[in-house]
Amino acid sequence: MSELQRVTKTFTGYLKRPDLYPELGRKVIKNIFNRKSAFRGKEKTLAWAKSNAVSQETAIAELFGIEMKPFDLLFPEELRTAKKREAECPVKMGGAGALELIYAACEFTHAQSVVETGVAYGWSSLAALLSLQKRTGVLYSSDMPYLSQDGDRYVGSVVPEDLKSHWKLFRHADKESLPKIFVEAISVDVVHYDSDKSYEGRAWAYVELHRHLKKGGVFISDDIGDNSAFQDFCEKENIKPTIVDFEGKFVGAFVKS
Prior knowledge:
The structure is a single chain. The protein has one domain (38-255): Vaccinia Virus protein VP39 (Rossmann fold), CATH 3.40.50.150. It contains eleven helices and eight strands. It has helices at residues 3-15, 21-33, 42-52, 56-64, 71-74, 76-88, 99-109, 123-132, 174-184, 199-212, 229-236; strands at 53-54, 113-117, 138-142, 167-170, 188-193, 213-221, 242-246, 249-255. The chain has an eight-stranded mixed beta sheet, with helices on both faces. A hairpin with a 2-residue loop joins strand 7 (242-246) and strand 8 (249-255). Helix 4 runs parallel beside helix 7 (99-109) and helix 7 runs parallel beside helix 8.
């Protein structure tokens, strides 16, 4: 599919969904007036992240005081099945992230409620749900439809059926999904951000997610090297985060004091 075809299909998809018009308006404004916002402060934050980054194993020890257990040893059968489902999926989406960090955060907090933004195949969802199901907890996920790929039905495809009773998926942009989620989950144990990559999108969501995160809860954000939104947020809130070097990208995490 060419770029023009992708854009045309995405725009047509938005037009067919009046409930997505608010996000369409935001995207039009961003692409016309604020195209560079995705990279604001990137050089500054990359230097900061590189100088402070540790391995996922070290991060889990520093944050939670526990030893990292590899996901393929904890859940070998679930991982094999999930990889098979990803391979069979006809739609290309984002791959697995720092699964051990997400799982360890849920175990550390004895999580009953987790909020994530961005689902794709559902790798981070799977990591959270495998912990939550032990305590009959709930994962609340915000994820935009894959309009250019007709991919709605494949979102979360690696999540097995027996875990879906612990999962509530909100299929809108964060600015529509998160207010609805926080009506049901006023305070949460873990948040995982992996959606809107723009500076403005992150800056808005970080405030909302942090506000509803319990004291002692864990905040995780993927791809913090895209721009300086995470660094700026932490500096403003006087937070010293742990930075994880994960497969050449950077993940930020902290425990709310």
